[in-house]
Amino acid sequence: MQAVGVVPGKREVRLIEHGMPRIAGANQIKIRSLEVGVCGTDREICTFVYGSPPDGFDYLVLGHESLGEVVEVGSSVSLFKPGDLVVPSVRRPCRHAHCLACREDKQDFCYTGDFTERGIKMTHGFLTEFYVDEEKYLTRVPAELRDIAVLVEPLTVAEKGLAQVRSIQQRLPWLDRKTPADQFGAGKNALVLGAGPVGILGAMLLLVNGFKTSVYSRSKAPNAKSELLESIGVRYISCEVENVDQLSERIGNIDLVYEAVGTAKISYDILRILGLNGIYVFTGIPAPKPAIAIDADIIMRNLVLKNQVVVGTVNADREAFAGAIRDLGLFLKRWPQALRSLITGRYRINQYRDLLLGKATGIKNVITLV
Ligand SMILES: [Zn+2]
Ligand SMILES: [Zn+2]
């Protein structure tokens, strides 16, 4: 069967004739790939900065943002049946008995670094016709989300980020006692850095949680992303029009920053204007570059005097996947057109070169396999 993969040893990105996977354990499920989202991680793997094949292979099948359909289940599988739509998680646990996190199915917090990731690190991905996975790594998707469920994986970044914020902000009186439980952001200002898919989906999540949400991004408005965001009630601010201090003045106390831009300079400039009791969530993974100057004294002073927390978050757990599916349903009810417009292109598998190696275009591009 066909797959798209990288051959790091030869620095090649190509179509690969990949063996048909088979169910090899009672808890396994065979899945037909329906759609696979392409993101910056895939594009970076195609520059060979990271991305490693499984043991015994010279290639790695790409793809970690998948929507699939169950075609066959192992004898002990109880939660899924053929025909169900599913989204798989990405990270798989390390094998070390002493890794408390992996032993408790919290491989997003793996202590050893010897985890694997489907389509990224030492386990084949989903950009192929069929794949097999264990029941516990799959989450069911309702049929009405069929055309947008490929957005689940990028939304899990924000879901896990917000879960971290909830748990950290228990340290202080964050909400009025009368605030409904689903309005965690009521009366709070959130700032999202970046207007890519992770940023836009993050802004949607913050909005439905009650935050007054702004997005700070490069391109001047109006543009497709600014119009999409403004149509759902997010304030879009271009860094070419307003500098960081003007931004700070406009927003007021910044209670939460959700970084989805992946570059250090602007991210640390924004850390300087984080508000009282503020929390800053980093999700980006910048490529190594020469050292930069930052306002380190102001930042350190603020961290202390303003009780601030900076937290990094990577990967997503079961709850984040379940939350993403629930919230995509909510977004679809509230903003059907804006949500669908996030998927700016659907392509066939043999068009992979443009998507992975060409100029990045649109918001979220998807490869359709059926
Ligand atoms: Zn991705
Ligand atoms: Zn581990």
Give your account of this protein's structure.
The structure is a single chain. The chain is 27% helix and 25% strand. It has 370 residues and is of the alpha/beta class. The chain is globular. The strands form 4 sheets. Strands 3, 5, 6, 10, 11, 18 and 19 form a 7-stranded mixed β-sheet that branches. The longest helix is centred in the middle third of the chain and has 17 residues, at 152-168. Helix 3 crosses helix 4 (197-208) and helix 3 (152-168) packs across helix 9. Strand 13 (212-217), helix 5 (224-231) and strand 14 form a beta-alpha-beta unit. The mean pLDDT is 97. The structure holds zinc ion (ZN) (2 copies).
Observed structural traits:
370 residues; alpha/beta; 6-stranded parallel β-sheet; 11 helices; globular
**Count of helical stretches:** 11
Strand content: 15-25%
Whole-number radius of gyration?
A: 21 Å
Give the helix level as a range of percent: 25-40%
Profile the largest sheet: 7 strands, mixed
Order of helices and strands: EEEHEEEEHEEEEHEHEHEHEHEHEHHEHE
Poorly predicted ranges: none
Bound molecules: zinc ion
Note the overall shape: globular
